[in-house]
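Hi all, posting the design record for the shared folder.

TITLE: backbone redesign
STEP: 1 of 1
STRUCTURE INPUT:
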């Protein structure tokens, strides 16, 4: 008999219940999957844990989940026959920054502006030196 734990997350299309930190190890998580939601061992193993698509479901009530932007390494899968639950342990593996092309373009734009401003500062210093020289020459010649 299955004890309903709720539908909190969808991970690569599989309905998942609560996600909790696993023990005291940072980056280790336990995920509950209910067999009653159509989850099987094969489906759990088929999840793209390197970069899973994770969606928070409406009934989640702001419970914690897996950290965003990470890939995971599948650890242990335990099946509890009496409750119909799979307990899956994953650990963080790689962090993905997503599409950073917009940020890269902005950085290049700002670097170009910095180069232009540096040129303007150099020109201003040269003109300042010319003015100081002209002033000195004018003062010396007109006493």
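Okay, here is what came back for every position:
SEQUENCE:
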């Amino acid at each position: 008999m299955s004890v309903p734990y709720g539908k909190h997350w969808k991970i690569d299309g599989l309905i998942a219940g609560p996600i909790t930190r696993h023990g005291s190890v940072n980056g280790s998580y336990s995920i509950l999957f209910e067999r009653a939601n159509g989850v099987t061992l094969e489906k759990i193993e088929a999840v793209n844990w390197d970069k899973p698509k994770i969606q928070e479901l409406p009934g989640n009530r702001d419970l914690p989940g897996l950290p965003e932007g990470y890939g995971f390494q599948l650890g242990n899968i335990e099946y509890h026959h009496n409750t119909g639950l799979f307990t899956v342990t994953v650990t963080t593996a790689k962090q993905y920054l997503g599409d950073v092309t917009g940020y890269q373009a902005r950085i290049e734009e700002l670097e170009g502006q910095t180069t232009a401003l540096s040129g303007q500062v150099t020109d201003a210093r040269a003109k300042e030196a010319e003015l100081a020289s002209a002033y000195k020459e004018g003062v010396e010649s007109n006493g």
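COMMENT: The mean pLDDT is 86.
Let me know if anyone wants the other runs.
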